[in-house]
Amino acid sequence: MAAKQKLMSVRRDWRERDVRVVLVALVIAVATVATIALFANQLQRTLVSSASSFLAADRQLEAENGRPVPQAWIEEARDRGLETGQMIEFSTMVLGESEFQLVSVKAVSDEYPLRGEIEIQPTADATRHMVGSGPGRGELWVNPRLLRLLELDIGDTLEVGNLELTITSLLLREPDGGFRLSSLAPRVMIHVDDVPQTGVIQDGSRAEYVYLFAGADNILDDYFQWLEPQLEPSHKWESVRDGETFSRSLERAERFLLLGGSLAVLLAAVAVAVASRQYALSQRDTVALLKTLGLSSKGIGGLYLRRLALWGIAGALGGLLVALPLFWILVRLLSDVLEQPVDFYLDPAALVPALLTALVSLFAFAYPPIRRLRHVAAMRVLRSQPGETGREAIPDIIIAIVAVFALVWLYAGEIALVVSLLGGLVLLLAVLALLGGLMVAALRRVRGGGNAWRLALVGLYRHRQASMAQMAVFAMTLMLAATLILVRTSLLDDWQSQLPDNAPNHFLINIAPDAVDEVEAFWSDRGAPLDSVYPMVRGRLTELNDQPVQEAVSKDERVGALNRELNLTWMAELPADNEIVAGAWFAQGDTEGVSVEAELAERLGLVMGDRLTFTIGSETVTEPITSIRTVQWDSMQPNFYMAFPPGGGLANMPGTWITSFHLDESNKIALNEFSRRFPTVSVLEIDHIIERIQQIVRQVTQAIEAILALILAAAFVVMAAVVSATLKDRQREGALLRTLGGQQSLLARSTMLEFAILGFFAGILGIIAAEAAVYALQARMFEGNFNWHWQVMLPIPFISALLLALFGRWQLRPVLNVSPMLLLRRLE
Amino acid sequence: MNQMTDLSTTDTSPMLRVTNLTHRVGLEIDTLTILQGVSLEINRGESVAIVGRSGSGKTTLLGLLAGLDTPTEGTVSLDGAQISSLSEDERARLRASRVGFVFQSFQLLPALSALENVMLPLELAGMEAPEVRAKELLERVGLGERLNHTPRQLSGGEQQRVAIARAFASDPVILFADEPTGNLDNRTGQDVSDLLMELNREQGTTLVMVTHDEHLAARCGRQLHIEAGILTEPELARERAN
Fold first, then answer.
1. pLDDT per residue over A689-702, tens digit each?
2. Residue of A nearest to B125 (CA)
3. How far is B52 from chain A (nearest CA, A)?
4. Planar angle of CA A767, A769, A773, nearest 5 degrees
5. Are A485 and A789 contacting, i.e. CB atoms less than 8 angstroms apart?
6. Does the beta carbon of B120 lie under 8 angstroms from any beta carbon of chain A?
7. Cβ–Cβ gap B89/A743 under 8 Å
8. DSSP per position, A339-380
9. What domains does chain B contain, in order, with CATH numbers?
10. What pLDDT digit, counting tens, does each position of A742-789 carry?
11. Residue A445: closest CA among chain B residues belongs to which residue?
């Protein structure tokens, strides 16, 4: 019994190379999947909480009708355990020492902000710092530009309506500094309880009441379900994920993490499969011996099943031991990038996919070949029996493929991902079969040896079955790694192009037509030239094909765009980031027609040729739709739903001009001079928002890089496992070749060449399949445009050739450094 | 090819000259002396059996004679080359051109067919069209019909025939055989040793064979005994006594 127990010991197993590979593959699988799942979870929570601060809460309820919502709604929220807060936003004129200035007032309750912090500077020379609540009663925080415009100082008083308030701090940044029309004027922040005394808000005033909510997602969702039937059209419920600029980036980052995790699952599964098959083959003699000694098939099945279970436990524990410190490091990195401490969210549920991966890898991949050990004939002890043919492994492969894709599906929940990866793999195998056939046919003609090239080619042909199997695994591994590299590259490129360092961060609005040239000259003199300047005419869409638009569009399709004035423009050139999806852009000299933004057209059911009537002031303009175009709303450029040709429908309409441009922090002081020279032009400062978005992109990028590194490590282990699978044969061959007079250098060169050829072709196959998978993924999951990536892809076959050649050389090291006699004895 | 080197050829220098060969291996606690002061000369075309019990050091001696390993002390000169002073690559070149091997455990590569196994040394020597010569040899050893069978599909005797064909493929001047019939039954062993002797005669090769089989040893022109690392030659001893 003791001997049998000894057969079962993991420590003894560890001394066997194949078992080590299985265990290392398992540890990596569990570690990668657990780290990614934990980190994705952490990232999501961190991003959401940092994104929540864009709303200063988890949810906002906006009442755009200038009336507060019923108090009962707020009480209901509190009863449900939600945190609540309130803001009122309105514009008003304030009187400084000598002049009036329009300001945008934000009155906040004590609870504001529920998420995020406010950055202030209590005196001109104090350091900036973050605070968790707004000004107290009687206090006033102001945008620094307003102080300069009004020639006031901290400590002075300022009248808002009828109430005199003391300026106690500079307001530098609010967490929810979004775009609102009211924020065109410099910001002033006061306490919400001071609002009634100002007397500014009367019935019908243009004020926006905003209510803040924070709490657990499920409570918020329940609350919204309760609230929704009572909402009026002017009420708007906003969550972080609705249409915020960065939400698309966030979503794609999450998908990237899922993709990374799925690839980790696939790679680990391949490694476990390869190593355990090898292990099973090496166990055949032991099994035959055990059978000879009287152990039944059942007993053997049980023996190996228990052994698998032990490996599973060891692999899972080992994986978690690796994952937890790794996770800790990643979170620390995240904290560094965010420049603020990040709380750990160690969600035990995130470990489930990792443990499931270990279980499935073991039982779908490792178990089938080991199970077949029961059928090994005892006769093997006496006489070498034919080994397994590849045919017996076919059911294993089918089980394995089904299992792994089920796992990926379970893990990522994206059928598009499963289909893309599976499609890529099928393509890979098809091309491999074709290429393999051609290669075998070509290699058959190679004869003789003597030089390393011929010896390498002959070697490839001799081991064609093993070579093809290795190439398939290498190619698959490279495909998965290349897919991830490609998706990462295009994701980062996309973000980078979306928000380059010189992205416009200021808007100028309300430029009078005759001031356009002067404004342009002002900024180009100061090294901050304007991007395109567009005319802007405000008008309502009133009729569709001569029918009132409210009737023409069914009620549930009524969109915000119909309830308010739209910004209309005219332009000769299609902006670079717009794309025509139907019709054609205006030709030179065209004066007829209107171009409509694609999403709005879809929501209103507009088609080419529909006649749209706009009411602008007292005038009406009717034009047919001549093109439909997409707009990049997050491009930080002025964007328009409706564009007319120059000299077209808008020709004689009263309008102002709008533009955006990039202004460095160091140059911001010029804004004061600008405001004095062009007092009617509104400046919208969005540099802080852009900074926030760039910060988030940076942190997601870091996470993606870290995960890419993990996956590449997993890929390397797979390759190592596959190469090790034929290690013993190669060593025996090497030893014999040396005995027969093969020189060390010749052996080394031919082995390196053989692996380099394998690596090169596997690399080519891998990138073809990766391009195909990325093509599908890009279209379905990442909404990006597909481009060929030769500059990224081209080095891959060479790198893989080099790596494999070095790896092959490294493996041959015992053969080259020991005397052939010792080697032959050792291998006997 | 097929140069008939027999005793009548002009080159009368010994094929193998061994002087005071000693070999020790380091163990964990002390060193073990496997061979001690072995001196020996083997002439061209001679067939020599080295007989001894398991663990007597005979396989180690064979390895050192063939240049598969280097001795701790002493010199080995093979066909005029001082192999103990050659580099590993020079020894490999020497083996490729002048030495053939037959092993007790056949040492065929399982992934290769019989034909490919025999082609291996020819390819290493850079020979053009190695399959012609390999086929010829396999036919000679009676396996012309089994060229494409892998070792697993061949019996032990057949595997050893493939190994013999491989050993003679590169026209060696000296053949080392390590217990060539050790893994075979009597009858098959007899067939294999017949084949080995026949080919040896045909090719005029010098044969050095390690065996514990007295019958096989008796078929060689000369027998050497080895015990506890010390080599003796009974007939020589008898002559000297006379």
1. 677 667 767 766 77
2. A450
3. 19
4. 110
5. no
6. yes
7. yes
8. TS-------GGGGHHHHHHHHHIIIIIIHHHHHGGGG--GGG
9. 16-241 (3.40.50.300)
10. 888 888 888 899 889 988 988 888 888 888 887 877 666 565 566 666
11. B129
